[in-house]
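Researcher: Next entry in the queue.
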Amino acid sequence: MPILRADKGACQGYANCVVAAPDVYDIDDDGVVVLLKERVPEEDRQRVEEAARSCPVSALTVEDE
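Model: Structure for this entry, 65 residues:
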């Protein structure tokens, strides 16, 4: 299962990831990304990677176990 990582220090709160994968990413009251899941099924990988790539500051990654 792919593992999700978020660099909260880099996050600027653009929320592109939330628009692309609202079941995986959210933004807290301080405008910082929150991972709703730390792992996603392989069948969701492409969608979640696209959401991660939509981050303008590259704060999100999807890694292999």
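Model: The chain has a mean pLDDT of 96.
Researcher: Noted, moving on.
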